[in-house]
Specification:
The structure is a single chain. This protein is an alpha/beta fold. It has one domain (2-124): Rossmann fold. Helix content is 44%, strand content 19%. The protein is built from six helices and five strands, in the order βαβααβαβααβ. The strands form two sheets. Strands 1-4-5 form a three-stranded parallel sheet. It has a two-stranded parallel sheet with strand order 2-3.
Length: 125
């Protein structure tokens, strides 16, 4: 599961079952230019905090919950290098959906970027 925002527990429970095996990755997407130039620790810490909250709200114990690359596609590829996923769930806010569509249109439009692994979208309102 790749999240760019906190997903409320009821929303998670509608999409994730107690028998699912999940790795949570939160891309460091809210990193400002000055953070990137000087110290990206704040954005990284915020992403790890969201990952922890999502992991705590899952109906199952996650394999891992970590921050990932700011590029969502790269964050997914990095996770797939060490975790054999059967499905990719991308959870994001409506604002992030618009931003992601501009930054990574291939991901949003569902092009086969991840070796045939199905991608499911969860837009958090």
């Amino acid at each position: 599961m790749v999240c760019t925002t906190h997903v409320p527990e009821p929303e998670l429970r509608r999409h994730v079952g107690p028998d699912d095996v999940i790795r949570v990755v939160v891309p460091v997407v809210r990193q400002g230019l000055l953070d990137w130039l000087a110290n990206d620790q704040r954005a990284f810490a915020a992403a790890e905090e969201i990952a922890g909250h999502v992991a705590d709200d899952l109906p199952t114990e996650p394999v891992a919950a970590t921050a990932g690359e700011s590029d969502v596609s790269l964050a997914i590829r990095d996770a797939l290098a060490t975790y054999p996923a059967e499905e990719i769930v991308i959870a994001l806010s409506e604002d992030d959906e618009v931003a992601l569509d501009r930054a990574a249109p291939d991901v949003v439009r569902g092009r086969d970027l991840f070796d045939g692994i199905p991608v499911r979208w969860l837009v958090v309102r």
